[in-house]
Amino acid sequence: MAETLPGTGGRGHGLDLAMRGIVKRFPGVLANDHVDFDVRRGEIHTLLGENGAGKSTLMKILYGLYRPDAGEIRIDGEPVQIDSPRRAIELGIGMIHQHFMLVPTLTVAENVALGLASPKGPLLDLAPVARRIEELSEAYGLRVDPGAMVWQLSVGEQQRVEIIKALYRDAELLALDEPTAVLTPQEVEDLFVTLRAMAAEGHSLIFISHKLHEVLDISDRITVLRNGRLVGTVSSADATKAGLARMMVGREVVLEQVRAPVEVGPPRLEIFDVRARGDRGTEAVRGVSLQVRAGEILAIAGVSGNGQRELAEVVAGLREATGGRVLIDGSDVTGADPGQRRALGLAYIPEERMRDGAIGQFTVAENLMLHDFDRPPFARHGFLDFAEIERHCRRLVADFDVKTPSLDTTMKSLSGGNIQKAILARELSANPKVLVASQPTRGVDIGATEYIHRRLLDQRARGTATLLISEDLDEILALADRIAVMYEGEVMDVVDRADADVGRLGLLMAGVRDSGT
Amino acid sequence: MGEFFTSAVLVSTVASGLRLSTSYLFAAVGETFGQRSGVLNLGVDGIMLLGAFGAYYTVLNGGGLWLGMVVAITVGLVMGLAMAFTSVTLQAEQGISGIGFYLFGLGLSDLLFQKLVGTPLPIRGFPELRIPFLADLPVVGEMLFSHSIVVYAAFLLVPVAAFVLNRTTLGLKIRSVGENPEAADTLGVSVAGVRYLTVMTGSALAGLGGAALATELGIFQQNLTAGQGFIAVALVYFGAWRPVGVMAGSLLYGLVASVVLQLKTLGIIPRSASELAAMLPAVLTILALVVAVQRERQPAALTKPYERGA
Amino acid sequence: MRKLIVVVAALALVAAACGGAGDEAGGGEGAAEQPFRIAVVAPSAINDLAFSQSIYDGLVAIQEEMGGPTKVELAVTDGTFVVEDAAAAIRDYAAQGYDLVIAHGSQYGTSLQEIAPDFPDVSFAWGTAGDTFGLPNVFAYEAASNQGGYVMGVMAAALSESGVVGIIGPIEVGDAKLYVDGFAAGVKAQDPTVDVTINYTGSFSDVALAAEAARAAIGAGADVLTGTAQMVVGAVGVAQEEGVLWFGTQADQTQLAPEIVVASQVYHWEVVLRDMIDLIQQGTLGGEAYVIDLANGGEEIAFNPGFDLPADVKQLGQDTIQGIIDGSIVVPAGG
Ligand SMILES: Nc1ncnc2c1ncn2[C@@H]1O[C@H](COP(=O)(O)OP(=O)(O)O)[C@@H](O)[C@H]1O
Ligand SMILES: [Mg+2]
To answer: What DSSP element (H or E) covers B102?
Structure first.
């Protein structure tokens, strides 16, 4: 049994971790191939690598969720066997998993107390737990209400609960697996404050991310993995974005694409005073008017939850507009269904790619043909032309660099980047007049991100009018011709790329209209 | 209709409803534990039958009622161990394996009965236990406080189960394992351990429910439970996985059944409607509880086996 | 997935071994001539002191009478309250070439109607029912259970001091309905002032419900009870506990509650079975619908020797039996 109450006594802060020659095989994959990795007391050490590089696997081995096939783990010089999470906790290891390990139907305090002995023996006693949570919140800037139900919390709050869970168990080494993937820029800042405070106290920290500026910002050292193998460990001070990207991908990566000037054509997508309700029934889009011309990328910036997703869905025909009009290539499509919009030349890359963009249990080929299988040249008189379908799919997979073992592989077994490339292949294969791309590179590794960006720019050059919705300002600045900032369902302002800078956009995103003062 | 509202009739109707509820209340509270931890045991009815036979056979052979109860609990534990092994360790599809256990219990209890007993000779059950003072109260005394000990035990089990689930560290583990076993695992909680415990507890209570039935009726017969175990499983759903809700459902079911019986006996329900009326307990219970628990959702991990890292 | 299949298969096998397969109760060995082979499929246990036991006892009596297991071979599949299981058993026996396959349950009729034409050389019997479906190889048999019910109803009315008699039935069909109606008619014929409460619980198997129905009847003042079908064992227990009298049917229920069982209507199916076997041996495989009653000896009122029945009531019962046999009393056939 773990401690009754978290003490500060007993152990000092921090520990020295050394993982040596770690090997982990999964059927058909060598997820970790003789990986060496170590973390010192008081250090923030980043584990960097593309999706599938083996970062999470290494962390799960550290936490006792997987048994390594070979290798050794030493803590403060002593070899240890970590055969269960319980053992990891005893050793002072805490972990924030890529997918949160919270029980949504329980309160924060119950989630924290789970698995711990109670001072009242078999009886639960949550009062001291709540008190200690408040102390930890205070000490590390982790605001959270111990009595709140977890399902009511925002993603950022849930993450704080996860960190408190680890701290409560006296974690001296804390590993955070892609903690920023789900956070807003402000929440990332808050998290970094907490992490720095913990490191300053002597905690050892492992940070995983593929956002290079974050990594350079927070880390002391950076270890790069590629295809399960260790590429190298560098000190943050000596690292550059380009250098890290090269280590991750194994080749030169163009982080900033060249945006060649393109002649803009007539408006392809026109939105007039559109209104729509959000999932909870409140008005999420409040009178938005925008125009996107052929050969132009209009980006919508904003903190998530300000109506961007709803607006994209209204344009795609997946959400009803409660007011206003939407025109595609001059035709009013306000009441049209998604199929009719598609026929007019609309393509859509949804934010929830596994929910709205692909069918996980279907094969790659089936997903590629999702919209077109019943049309010539793939079907004639109701009969599918399998040879033609296969030819078409092979071409798409090759053209869009989708890494898949075969066309018959199920979609869900591909990595996020490859799923997104497959969706892109399907959506762009018809050379759409209008493209709505929602968070096209969220959770996608940089190799794929680079590729997707290049494709979007190619499409721009071919005259597509693109509405890009992104929370990643770097992405917006790299791609957009014009930038609309949304705040509480309204467009604060539309600025030209040439006039945009991060400071001004940040203010608009926070709802501050620049009045010249 | 006036005849029905005499206090004597009301008293005996309520008392009869309580008695009818008893056996599936045991089973349903037991099943609640399993389901809260994510395991659906559809074999309850079979386990009840084996428990019923175990208790009946023990009493018939002079082993006494208490030993009969112990035998039923033991039979339940053994069946629970097998069920847990199948659904937790072997990760079998729970609905299908549960039906397997039901058929096994149904067949084996009948086989043993045929081979070991044959003719259904009566046994004597627990005597009526009048609770001092309370049993002497007018009306409610007869209604609630002059039953056999198994009836009290079933109803006492409800607050105990609610307490265990909501107020103990074990209960917290059970609830967590049923909602997000991975989260529990990462905090060092043994998912399999908790599930073995709940399934075995649930099966022991199912065995006890069967024993309650056999001793209250003083008889065993092939398929004695007549599907009560399935009613118990349904009551867990309709009781929204809460012991008190499960009790409410059990009571409603039992009371409607006893009211229907009473009304038929008094000739208030015409004989032509008697088959329709026989469906009333199920129909009313489902309706009432569907309305009451509309917004509840089942434990997220219910029927899902857990495997680390999968 | 394979694990699962193995487990389920194993369980199913065990269950099948326990529940389904029939017991061979007898079977000739070394007999010169072929024994007459009879198979019976019954919905409840053959020792249920009720419906299924009645046919089994009849078959054993016939076996005895015809010279034991060397002359008559018996095969039994009981407990097939699931009709599909019963149908499978009936078909199996027919395929194995039994001379007579008895489907002892009115609920098996539809299955039998499908199976019998496939085995024109096998004789089938269906009971309790009055219909042979016009098939040449199906016999039907039923009991005029209203007659015995009437006799016992007369005695019940005479015995009741409270003036209330309770009857518990399963579902208002077939043999149960006939019996209940006969009993009620008997009560009313003896004493029109006696109240009869009739409660069909809606289930042939719910023992607990039958027990509570008995309590409800007692609560309504009944001091004499009767009931039919296999779930009444629960009601008998309650009657015993509450010290009210019980009349049984379908089998002698004395041993269930020796102190309070007054008498039981017992079926002697051997009366009609004997005739069926004769016909089959002469080459007629069906077409006949039999009824057992007091007159042909297929029904008998078995008094509990341990129960101190007033002589005048017993005499009343015997007079009623005689009256029914000689036709001076006509029992209504229900309605
Ligand atoms: N439980 C598992 N079973 C089979 N393969 C797995 C499992 N977990 C991870 N993998 C594979 O191992 C490789 C490394 O995965 P992972 O450690 O999750 O990478 P990262 O966290 O760096 O994105 C991937 O190819 C992935 O598909
Ligand atoms: Mg990962």
So the answer is: helix B94-112
How high is the mean pLDDT in each 10-residue block of chain B (310 residues)? 72 92 96 97 97 97 96 98 96 92 94 86 89 87 89 96 96 96 94 97 98 94 91 90 93 92 85 80 77 75 86
C182 in any annotated domain: yes
Residue A397: per-residue pLDDT: 87
Look up the ipTM and state it. Answer: 0.89
Residue A516 confidence (pLDDT): 46
Residue A260 confidence (pLDDT): 82
Q: Do B226 and C11 touch (CB under 8 A)?
A: no
Report d(CA A410, CA A360) in Å as an integer. Answer: 6
CATH architecture group of domain B16-295: Orthogonal Bundle (1.10)
Number of domains forming the structure of chain A: 3
Q: pLDDT tens across B190-235, in order?
A: 999 999 999 999 999 999 999 999 999 999 988 899 999 999 999 9
Q: What ligand has the least distance to the C-alpha of A52?
A: 1
Q: Are residues C303 and C190 in the same domain?
A: yes
Domain ranges of chain B: 16-295
In this predicted structure, the answer to whether residue A54 has a pLDDT above a threshold of 50 is yes
Domain that residue C76 falls in = 2-144+268-292
Distance CA B80, CA A13 (A): 45
Q: Say how far apart CA A194 and CA A55 lie, in whole Å.
A: 22
- DSSP for C142-153, please give it: EE-HHHHHHHHH
* CATH number of the domain bearing residue C28: 3.40.50.2300
Closest CA to C220 of C262, C171, C165, C181: C165
Q: Look at residues A129, A152, A169 and tell me which one is the last residue of a structural domain.
A: A169
> In this structure, which residue's CA is closest to atom 16 in ligand 1?
A54
Residue C247 shares a structural domain with residue C226 = yes
Nearest partner of C286 among C32, C46, C76, C101, judged by Cα: C101
Least Cα separation, residue C330 to chain B (angstroms): 24
Q: Can you tell me which atom of ligand 1 is nearest the CA of B310?
A: 1
Chain A residue nearest residue B297, CA to CA: A105
Same domain, C179 and C255: yes
Among A49-63, A350-364, B289-303, C123-137, which is the least confidently predicted range?
B289-303
Does A371 share its domain with A505?
A: yes
C-beta neighbour count of A281 within 10 angstroms: 7
Q: C186 and C304: one domain?
A: yes
**A466, pLDDT greater than 50:** yes
The pTM of this model reads: 0.81
In whole angstroms, how far apart are CA A423 and each of A393, A416, C51? 12, 11, 68
Asked if residues C225 and C213 have their Cβ atoms less than 8 Å apart, the reply is no
The answer to whether the Cα torsion of A312, A315, A317, A320 is positive or negative is: positive
Query: Using the beta-carbon criterion (under 8 Å), do C202 and B97 form an inter-chain contact?
Result: no
Instruction: Determine whether the interchain pair B169/A105 forms a contact, defined as Cβ–Cβ distance below 8 Å.
Output: no
- Final residue of a domain: which of A169, A187, A212? A169
**In terms of residue numbers, what domain contains A126?**
105-169
Instruction: Tell whether A302 and A345 lie within a shared domain.
Output: yes
Please answer yes or no on whether B110 and C79 come within 8 Å at the CB atom: yes
Shared domain for A284 and A353, answered yes or no, is: yes
pLDDT score at B294: 63
Residues C160 and C32 in one domain: no
- Rounded to the nearest whole angstrom, what is the distance from the C-alpha of residue A413 to the centroid of ligand 1? 10
pLDDT 10s digits, A157-199: 899 999 999 999 999 999 999 898 767 667 788 899 999 999 9
Q: Which of A87, A114, A167 to mutate to test the interface with B (most CBs of B within 10 A)?
A: A114
* Closest chain C residue by Cα to residue B216: C208
| Ligand 1, atom nearest to A66 Cα | 1
Residues with CB under 6 A from ligand 1: A 26, 29, 31, 49, 51-57; B 309
Q: Cα torsion at B161, B163, B165, B167 (round to 10°)?
A: -170
